[in-house]
Amino acid sequence: MGGHYHLIMAIKNDQGIVLRTYSFGEADKVVVLISATNGKLRCVAKGIRKTKSRFGGRLEPFVYVDLVLYEGRNLGTITQAEVIDAHPKLRTNLEAVGAAVTMAEVVDLVVQEGEPSVGMFLLLQRGLASLENGGDIPSMLTHFMLRTAGVIGFSPALDTCASCGSVDITRFSFAAGGSVCDNCAPASSIRLSDGVLEHLLQVANREDLTAPALAADAQGVARKFLEFHLERPIKSWRFYMHDLDLSGVETDAVPNHIGLIMDGNGRWANARGLERTAGHAVGEAALFDAIDGAIALGVKWLTAYTFSTENWSRDEEEVAFLMFFNEDILTRRRNDLNAKNVRMHFAGDMDDPRIPDRNHVHMAEAVELTKDNDGLQLVFAFNYGGRTEIAHAARRLAEKVAAGVLVPAEVTEESLSQHLYVDGMPDVDLVIRSSGEQRTSNFMLWEAAYAEYVFSNILWPDFTAQALVDSVVEFQSRSRRFGKA
């Protein structure tokens, strides 16, 4: 095609709600929004003209705007934005902001770019308006998640069995589609606390709540049901640390150091017909929920068993995924952890040539970034094995004896402890293992010599900050005698 040609870009007028923004180059910003007629859009906010609105053309999450934009092949360009509603009251309420963040994330997960979704647009618009007007925020968010499940075709059965229609319902199944009777209940179904199903039905129908205390349990069921059908976690839900029940915790007896054996990712995925790697991906949200729980409790040290020396024997594809996944977590999450005053450490055989160079680079960057933080000390046990750690420490001591730096009599428990992977790390007080398995799996063999163990039946992707709190309450109910009578 010779000569000159012109690329004609369509001009559109639309209304939209901003879901999120992110940087684009040095000066520009990409705005992700859901529009009334064009579904999800990604646009560069560039050269926006000021308008008569006292909010100007400010494009922030939850802002409802009237737009003029040019449609591009990959990114549109917003040239004018008139704010219709910035939801100012919502922004003064921390709980409401958290709910709004979750609503926006859910819409972002559900709606595809360029595919109209009037239902989700209206649902978000009404949800933000409800938060702006005030009221029972947990119930608003639960209602939003139940309605979203309906929009995507998975409205949960709450008053009859999802399989046979019986009203004699006793359990709840994410896979079967909601409440189920004993005869239809699959092995993966769960028995809910008394009143939770009734509470969910009341929220769905916007009826008066007879048991407001069940709000947190009901919200958890609605969230997990939606996550199951989205096949991915709703990460911002972890904003709700105020929902933690700390009433049973003795604040002056919180364990100084907690170890986590994060087991059950594969079984969680298999139960849903997914690849094992899907369980690892969802398990990330559980880990960071547990981290937030540890911070809320005032725990000083938390060690997470992220990859063992034995894990190299797994399927090559799964190992490759875990290497990439551990690297990806560091690059995506380190700034958040740094903002929470968390200091990161790594315990494991870092001389192993099988560890990709890029993992070493990102681990070093995370350590450097957080080295001055004095909050939670977070240890990633990566390529870790308890026996290997002890052998590593003994070898270092033997080298010092051979060099004449130490004499054999100076090889003691204290000197060996000083040569473990993380210098200055205290002994583990509590080890929590998820999924119901009851073994140590070569985890912290030296440091956990006098630790208490709590074996939770929860599969790791379903583990929560509250599960961590409950394990601490169990820990505090025990008497630690350290060999004494």
* Order of adjacent strands in the largest pleated sheet: 10-11-9-8-12-13
CA radius of gyration is 26 Å
Query: Taking all residues together, what is the mean pLDDT?
Result: 87
Euclidean distance between termini CA atoms: 92 Å
What fraction of the residues are assigned to beta strands by DSSP? 15-25%
Number of helices: 12
Contiguous low-pLDDT stretches (5 residues minimum) are 1-8, 49-57
What is the H/E string? EEEEEHHHEEHHEHHEHEHEHHEEH
Task: Give the tally of β-strands.
Answer: 13
Helicity level: 25-40%
Summing up helix and strand content along with how strands pair, one would put the structural category as alpha/beta
**Outline:** globular
The major β-sheet equals: 6 strands, parallel
In short:
The chain is 36% helix and 19% strand. With 485 residues, it is of the alpha/beta class. Helix 3 runs parallel beside helix 5 and helix 7 packs parallel to helix 8.
Topology:
Elements: E1 10-24, E2 28-35, E3 39-49, E4 64-71, E5 76-85, H1 94-110, H2 118-133, H3 137-151, E6 171-173, E7 178-180, H4 196-204, H5 215-230, E8 257-261, H6 265-271, H7 276-297, E9 301-308, H8 316-339, E10 343-347, H9 357-370, E11 377-384, H10 386-402, H11 413-417, E12 430-433, E13 452-455, H12 465-476
Parallel strand pairs: 3-5, 8-9, 8-12, 9-11, 10-11, 12-13
Antiparallel strand pairs: 1-2, 1-4, 2-3, 4-5, 6-7
How would you describe the overall organization of this protein?
The chain is an alpha/beta fold and 485 residues long. The chain is built from twelve helices and 13 strands. The strands form three sheets. Strands 10-11-9-8-12-13 form a six-stranded parallel beta sheet, sandwiched between helices. Helix 2 (118-133) packs antiparallel against helix 3 (137-151) and helix 7 (276-297) crosses helix 12. The radius of gyration is 26 Å and the shape is globular.
